[in-house]
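Pipeline run #58 for the internal structure catalog. This entry was flagged by the ingest filter as a single-chain record with no existing model, so it goes straight to prediction. Upstream metadata was stripped on purpose; only the residue string is passed forward. Reviewer on rotation: M.T. Logging verbosity set to normal.
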Amino acid sequence: MILPVVLSGGSGTRLWPLSRKMHPKQLLPLVNEHSLLQDTLNRFKSAKDVERGIVICNEEYRFMVAEQVRQTHLKGVDIILEPIGRNTAPAIALAAFSADRDGDDPVLLVLPADHDIRKLDAFLDSVALGEQQALAGRLVTFGVLPDKPETGYGYIKAKAITAGVAAVERFVEKPDRDTAQTYLDDGSYFWNSGMFMFRASVYLETLQAHAPDIYASCEQAMTNAERDMDFVRIDKAAFEACRSDSIDYAIMEKADNVDVIPVDIGWSDVGSWAALQDLADSDANQNSLQGDVKAQAVKNCYIRAEDHLVVALGVDNLIIVDTHDALLVAHRDHVQDIKTIVEQLGAEDRDEVLLHKRVCRPWGCYQGIDYADRFQVKRITVNPGAVLSLQMHHHRSEHWVVVNGMAKV
């Protein structure tokens, strides 16, 4: 049995202002009408041996994640809440302990929640091959066939490929452009996709051998875990004491039973606005226009209007993203610098880094419309049949106007 384990803890600051700390990119509909998280889970619609899954997310995202998971085809999904981020090695350990509790020892298919895959059949074929290797006790990673000297990814160097599988010779860090070109010319280097397959027991045994402290912390965190509705709440103190480390450093670079499966699956990590532009449909002038946009004498631009009319005249190679509370205008060659700007805004405690004006809650959402001294106006949307939490205020008067539907008070 294959058990998808979806890692949904990142914040995606390079896609600001659409992606925010409290509403990260994996929960946004960036490439179609579904979020990246939903697309990740829905890849298994036609897979007969995939019946349930695990999503690991930050506790602050829990309600948005639960609602989005509910809208996918995959039922029986456990949502493990991380009280604090500790990178991929501990996160996967939580899933492995959870999956192996019943003694069925499934094959874990570890997937980032924020990637896009266009060639679904090729992806499922590679997963089937990975399952065979995992059942044989191997630690499997998937290496994407490179088509350019990319400096934003780590690389995997493979030994001789036999029947679509190769032992890993080594993992290498993100290179400079000249080094990346030598990797591309060599032909035995592949982009590190961050996708993995292995039996739960094999992962835990390897983790115990190479990172026993992480193993012990995660074991304790899951031993004391409690179920709360859709969520699995782990022992906060035990997990906070855990060392932060990636699966690459903690295990994959140290183990001697690691295989790589080279894949051509139409993969993107959707890591920047430039990457998203490459995925989007474009017009004759290589523009991708989303929302209420008017463009004249414009070339090679990605323009996204969330709330307002955006007009562009005579510009080239720009990324323009307009939201209700922030506007981004960036040259395509500088989109990787957005992370630095977000860090500066965060240091200034700007709300635009944390939240959209539209905030999700278990019962629905609300959006700030106007505010000043002594008043604020919100638009509240309550899901059908949902109930707001009971509250009492000593110094506030509230006036409610039902504009659509019927409310029971």
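catalog note: The two ends are 48 Å apart (CA to CA).
catalog note: The chain has a mean pLDDT of 92.
status: ready for reviewer M.T.
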